[in-house]
Amino acid sequence: MKAPNRTPRTTYVLLGIMALLSVFPLYWMFVVATTDTASATQLPPRVLPGGNFLHLAGLVFDTVPFLQALLNSIAVAAAVGAGQATLCALAGFAFAKLRFPGRNTLFLIVVLTMTVPAQLSIIPQYLIMSQLNWVDTLQAVIVPGLVSAFGIFWMRQHIASVIDDELMHAATVDGASTWQIFWRIAFPLVRPAAFVLGLFGFVTAWNDFLWPFIVLKSPDRYTVQIAIKALQNNRDIDLGLAMSGSFLATLPLLVLFILVGRRLVQGIMDGAFKG
């Protein structure tokens, strides 16, 4: 008789350990958010939450306009996510299915831009925002993130593998325009991939710090990451206060993942196994 296969049990144990290690930083952030700086830096470190969270959360909202920062981040992240899902799908459709001069060269240029560090574009990007009088406005944060080279590449590859040329030809014979083919045929078929891309764009915009820190000046226009920075003094840092702000800033992402986590995984798997 063969010995029972214990590989699945071992796999589940390893996955459970990895899940706990992944969740622990979030848990420790909550622990620090319920204590003071002294408790956060003690050795051995504290592993049980305290009872100071509501007090520190109140200080967060009293110290900086944190609620306004949350609303600003929601507006920015939602606009960026929707923009990437739509505009990258449009560009990907053009590169995958339309025939025009220089198509392959333009797509190669788009892909090559992914090799350029984002920090190199900060100065020219700031100069453009200054010429447009967009400095210290939310559109200065939204507009540069509406399209990404990775998003165009993602959607181009997915559309090329999902949409048949015969389907487009049949739609053209029936009198459909290119715009109608995209919205009524192509986009519904690649909506799961576009949804995943939009979520990636949402999370990236939510967590972005460097560019909003440079271009936003007024406290009432801060995004949530800049508001967390404003909680810290120049010389010392109240870890409890800073971690309370960080935990409050993480809660919307946790709620979003709970609501759409299953669709996110399905969209990724759908994109991985097409073609």
TrEMBL record:
<keyword id="KW-0813">Transport</keyword>
<dbReference type="GO" id="GO:0055085">
    <property type="term" value="P:transmembrane transport"/>
</dbReference>
<dbReference type="InterPro" id="IPR035906">
    <property type="entry name" value="MetI-like_sf"/>
</dbReference>
<dbReference type="InterPro" id="IPR000515">
    <property type="entry name" value="MetI-like"/>
</dbReference>
<feature type="transmembrane region" description="Helical">
    <location>
        <begin position="12"/>
        <end position="30"/>
    </location>
</feature>
<protein>
    <submittedName>
        <fullName>Cellobiose transport system permease protein</fullName>
    </submittedName>
</protein>
<keyword id="KW-1133">Transmembrane helix</keyword>
<feature type="transmembrane region" description="Helical">
    <location>
        <begin position="69"/>
        <end position="94"/>
    </location>
</feature>
<comment type="similarity">
    <text>Belongs to the binding-protein-dependent transport system permease family.</text>
</comment>
<feature type="transmembrane region" description="Helical">
    <location>
        <begin position="106"/>
        <end position="128"/>
    </location>
</feature>
<keyword id="KW-0812">Transmembrane</keyword>
<feature type="domain" description="ABC transmembrane type-1">
    <location>
        <begin position="70"/>
        <end position="260"/>
    </location>
</feature>
<dbReference type="GO" id="GO:0005886">
    <property type="term" value="C:plasma membrane"/>
</dbReference>
<feature type="transmembrane region" description="Helical">
    <location>
        <begin position="134"/>
        <end position="155"/>
    </location>
</feature>
<feature type="transmembrane region" description="Helical">
    <location>
        <begin position="237"/>
        <end position="260"/>
    </location>
</feature>
<keyword id="KW-0472">Membrane</keyword>
<keyword id="KW-1003">Cell membrane</keyword>
<dbReference type="Pfam" id="PF00528">
    <property type="entry name" value="BPD_transp_1"/>
</dbReference>
